[in-house]
Amino acid sequence: MELQALISNIKSEDIVEILGIKDVNVTGITSDSRKVTTGYAFIALKGVQVDGHDFIAKAIELGAKVIIHDEDTDTSNSSVTYIKVKDAADAIGKIASAWYGNPSQKLNLVGVTGTNGKTTTATLLYNVFRKLGYGAGLLSTVCNYVNDDQFPATHTTPDPISLNEFLAKMVEAGCEYAFMEVSSHAIHQKRISGLEFKGGIFSNLTQDHLDYHGTMQDYLKAKKAFFDNLPATAFTLTNVDDKNGLVMLQNTKAKKYTYSLRTLADFKARVIEKHFDGTAIEINGRELEVQFVGVFNVYNLLAVYGASVLLGEDLEKILIVLSTLKSVAGRFETIRSKDGFTAIVDYAHTPDALVNVLGAIHDVLEGGGRVITVVGCGGNRDKTKRPIMAREAVTLSDQVILTSDNPRFEEPQSIVDDMVAGLDPVQMKKALCIVDREQAIKTACTFAKPGDVILIAGKGHEDYQDVKGVKHHFDDKEIVKNILGL
Asked: Which residues are known binding-site members for meso-2,6-diaminopimelate?
């Protein structure tokens, strides 16, 4: 690709200077100097742990012909074209988009952001549009899809180059729609820069990722930036039952729509009846039975319904498809034992998500059985939520087993100790500490009696446990089934 075409999406005022030959043909783009080969453009990004500017010389040595940077650097090599931009993190998305033929402009791309519900909402939207007969793609925490082809997911929102490569695959495969989770990290790091969205959905905002954002206010600002940057041609759909729902839309140019279970909104739902196999609900005056449990899932389904309507689909067809949908992997997955108790595997790894799932269990149980919760917290992540997670678990459970999640580079026992710090002596009587997660699950199954419910929270769809940088095979659902002889 000619250099001028490669940087065509970057506004002229965002380019500080261009030094060297402008008539250059670029053979590839990367922000990883190890991937550079002859004729590449290397984008020097200042990351959380490493600074790409430190690898410019290495990139040139490997054959880079264009260097894009936003900090002062040695520009003395006459065989290299240097482009200084105001913000390399912003520029890389626009460069990646140009390199792959601006794929987001050829798709109806909808982004879903919020603390909880992103995976379920984005995945169900993808499922709805596939069932309606459309070509569709998905970028999510669990798995990425191009129509029915699966690709493993490494990040909730990939880096800009990988992201545009995926979107280009969707275009090539004939997809008309694309649905993606948009994480706060991705927004803050400008990984979605250069993408053209048809719509944006906000689910909720509760405590998470404070290890990265520092404060709830900065976390909120990161989420809000997604909506601030949506064009007037896009729609926004926000949960007005969340106190930050309308805050998200304060500065957006996009068309504004709302959904709610509690107040007047464009898309309104109410719960009629709850049971372990599903929920009877009403959406905008129409009753239907869905195969999901919990009020939080009604919010997810309502967002899916609203977005589908805003994308121009027939109301009757959407309702029919909603009634056929099943839960997403690792989200309130129910396993019935031969002994008459139920195990539920769920990804809940924030205080709010844990409260929602436990609340859903109590709604269905109606005092008819005990709740035993197995829960841990991830290592090298927001430590402030650990005592809160333990407190919420104990408050809403009859018995809690505090255990290991993905300890990463922390000692599992010290993570459990951080959780225990949130409990007073009375609460501790309901808590048991078993660091070995498999043993914790086995113990919970031993405690359970007919009619009881075991919640195994935190890992959901994950089939590994991350210990000291090594991912060991570990699947909560698989372990439960083995213990129960299923």
From this structure: 381, 405-408, 458, 462
192 shares its domain with 179: yes
Hey, how many other C-beta atoms are within 10 angstroms of the C-beta on 278? 17
pLDDT confidence tier of residue 230, bands split at 50, 70 and 90 = very high
Q: Is 168 exposed, middle or buried (0-12, 13-18, 19+ CB in 10 A)?
A: buried
Least confident span in 101-115, 209-223, 330-344, 456-470: 209-223
Beta strands in 5-49 (DSSP E): 15-19, 28-30, 40-43
Known binding-site residues equal 33, 114-120, 156-157, 183, 189, 191, 381, 405-408, 458, 462
Rounded Cα–Cα distance for residues 185 and 383 (Å) = 17
On whether both 358 and 439 belong to a single domain, the answer is yes
- pTM for the full predicted model: 0.83
452 with 383, same domain? Answer: yes
- What residues are designated binding site for ATP? 114-120
**Residue written as tokens 């990984």?**
191
Domain shared by 374 and 258, yes or no: no
Q: Are residues 258 and 290 in the same domain?
A: yes
Domain of residue 86: give its range. 3-99
Q: What does the DSSP assignment read for 420-456?
A: HTT--HHHHTTEEE--SHHHHHHHHHHH--TT-EEEE
Q: What is the pLDDT of residues 280-324, one digit of tens each?
A: 999 999 999 999 988 989 999 999 999 999 999 999 999 999 999
**Residue type at position 20:** G
Nearest to 381 by CA among 400, 354, 355, 409: 409
Number of domains in the chain: 3
The CATH number linked to 51 is 3.40.1390.10
